[in-house]
Amino acid sequence: MSRERITQDVKKWLDQYHYYEPNDFEKIYDDWLIQNFDRMDHGIREKMFSKLDDWFFHTHAFLQGTSFQNDARARILTVGRAISGDIHNIEDMKHALTIDQLTYIAEQHKARGRLYSFTQGGLTGTGGWLLLGLDFPLMMVMNIRAVQLIGLTFGHEMNHPYEMMISLKVFHAATLPKRLQAEAWRELVKEIQDKEHPYIYGGDDRLTNEQWLEQPMKQAFKSLFIVMFRKKLVQGLPFISIAIGAYSNYHLTRKVTDFALRFYQYRHLQWTKGET
Hints:
mainly alpha
C-alpha cells in the first residue's frame, strides 16, 4: 500500500507544475529577459554561465570532502543500520529499506535543512554587509548539500560523476521558476531513463542559463528589502528585516527539498519496477 500511496503523492505534487499557467507578468518578464540576453555578446554570455556551472561543480566536490558532510553521511548509515542490519554502505540503503523508511529518514534532513536556512536567513536579516554578501553563496551551498543528503538517503553515492550531475540538475530544476519546472522534471526523468553507464555521466553537463537567473534576482531583491527595513528597530532589533531574511531562505529550502524528495521517491519507485 505504501508504494501506491507515495506514487499518488508524487503524482498529485507534480500536477501543480503540469497544470500551472504563468500570469501576464511572468510572460512579460520572460520576453524581456530573452530580448536582453539576445543583445548580449554570445561569447560573454557563454563564459558567464560556464563560470557559474564551474562554481556549482566545485561546490559539490568541496562539500563531499568536508567533515560536516562525512558526519552526515555516517549518520545516515547509522540510522539505516538501526532499521536493518543488512546495510554496509550507502548503496545498500535502497535495497534494505522500504520507501516509507527511506522517506522518513529523508524527512529528517529536510527539517534540518529548513531550520539551518531559517536561522541563516534571520542572521542575514540583521543587515550586516558581510552577512548580506555571503547570503546567496551560503544559500546555494546549503541547498546543494540538502539535495545531496536526500540522494544519499535513497542509496545514491554522490561521489560518482553520474550522481553528482543528477543531484546538481535536481538542485537546478528545484530553483527554477514554477512555470519552468514541469519541463525540467521531464528532462530529469529522461536522464535517468536514458542512463548508459552506472557511474559516468554522458549527457549535457550545462546547468545554468538565463531562465535560472530569476533566482539570484529574487535574492537581490530580498537583500534590498533587508537593507530598506534594517533601521526599523523594535527593542533594538530589526525584526522586519530578520523576518524577511528568515522566511525567504526557509521558503527556498522548502521548495528545493520538496522537489528533491519527490524526485528521489519517483526514481526509487521506477528502480523497484526495474525501469532504472
